[in-house]
Design a protein that fits this description.
Elements (H helix, E strand, L loop, with lengths): L1 H26 L27 H6 L17 H5 L13 H13 L3 H14 L3 H20 L10 E5 L6 H8 L3 H7 L13 E5 L3 E6 L4 E6 L2 E7 L11 E13 L9 E8 L10 E4 L9 H5 L2 E2 L2 H10 L6 E5 L1
Helix pairs in contact: 4-5, 5-6, 7-8
């Protein structure tokens, strides 16, 4: 009799547990779709009609890796997941032409990550506008899928798969790498943020992201730490007043308000403030889209930067308050 009672209790408990798991699967949040790429990158400033490292050439060497959620590398320790991984260093004696040649050779050999690093170093060193435009075009062909979507490259310390540990959640993981929780979900659309399973993998991008505004070219370049990601066309509607120097995405100024109806475009703003002697007077600048700058003050408009709504959304997803910098160049 005792055996039958015990068996009945176990069967009832198992049935209740199955019912709870089923109901939880129905009510769990739906993952965001992969972020759509903006299509308004500015044309190369003075690039010739053909380039020696076209996007098509770069893509041919692109080695995307499928995310194996159940088999995170056992060699990846907790310490590696919590601290920055080094990026390749290049000899200071190498010329820009040397770096470009090395990058092209790496890409031709299928070493896409190494080629990207060589091109990125060349971009940091070049002073030639046309050459810089060609390098940005080539790098954008690689980096959009790596830094802004779900793809991975082998041995890439900037965007990689790390293990999930017991007690991890989206907020703790995002803070560890200087990115937003919304962006973490964009990188991992198949994961349930309320049910992260230990010993499986999650893609991260090493942040924080930063923006570099080149005023004379009406261009904003997005970087993940020191790695160039993509460029966006910008406008200065009120006369290009914004002083040269360093700014910070200000705390509490990333705003996104729903429109009057579900079909309305959301109104999005990203606030910034000056953090050096030249920029200190700017306390209320805005990155804005079709909704216009935040507030009616003339100074707000004069220090505003206008982008296409899709581009602004990408910046909203990637820039973090108090950590992301905005560098303004002439």
């Amino acid at each position: 009799m005792l055996f039958l009672w015990t068996l009945s209790l176990l069967l009832v408990s198992w049935g209740l547990w199955q019912a709870w798991e089923f109901s939880r699967s129905l009510t769990g949040p739906t993952a965001l779709p992969p972020m759509a790429f903006a299509t308004s990158d500015p044309a190369p400033d003075t690039a010739p009609a053909t380039t020696p490292w076209s996007v098509a050439t770069v893509s041919a060497g692109h080695q995307d890796m499928a995310l194996d959620r159940g088999n995170a590398s056992p060699d990846l320790t907790r310490q590696q997941a919590e601290f920055l991984l080094p990026t390749p260093a290049f000899d200071a004696s190498l010329s820009v032409a040397d770096l470009i040649a090395r990058g092209k050779a790496d890409l031709a050999a299928g070493r896409t990550s190494a080629g990207r690093y060589a091109f990125n170093e060349a971009l940091a060193r070049t002073t030639d506008e046309a050459e810089g435009a060609q390098l940005r075009q080539a790098l954008a062909g690689i980096n959009r899928s790596i830094f802004l979507s779900t793809a991975l490259l082998p041995d890439d310390p900037s965007a990689r798969l790390v293990p999930i540990h017991s007690g991890d959640n989206y907020l703790s993981i995002a803070r560890s790498y200087g990115i937003t929780t919304a962006f973490l979900q964009i990188l991992n659309p198949t994961l349930n943020p309320n049910n992260l399973k230990p010993n499986t993998g999650i893609k991260i991008v090493q942040g924080p992201f930063a923006a570099r505004v080149v005023k004379h070219a009406n261009r904003l370049d997005l970087y993940a730490r020191d790695q160039y990601v993509a460029s966006f066309t910008i406008e200065f509607p009120e006369g290009n007043y914004l002083p040269r120097g360093e700014y910070q995405v200000a705390p509490g100024t990333k705003l996104q308000l729903a429109g009057a109806s579900r079909s309305s475009t959301e109104r999005t703003w990203i606030g910034f403030r000056g953090i050096d002697e030249a920029t200190e007077p700017v306390t209320n600048g805005w990155l804005f889209g079709s909704a216009g700058p935040r507030g009616n003050d003339a100074k707000n408009r004069a220090t505003g930067i206008h982008l296409a709504d899709g581009d602004l959304q990408q910046l909203y997803n990637t820039l973090t308050e108090s950590h992301s910098r905005l560098t303004v160049l002439p």
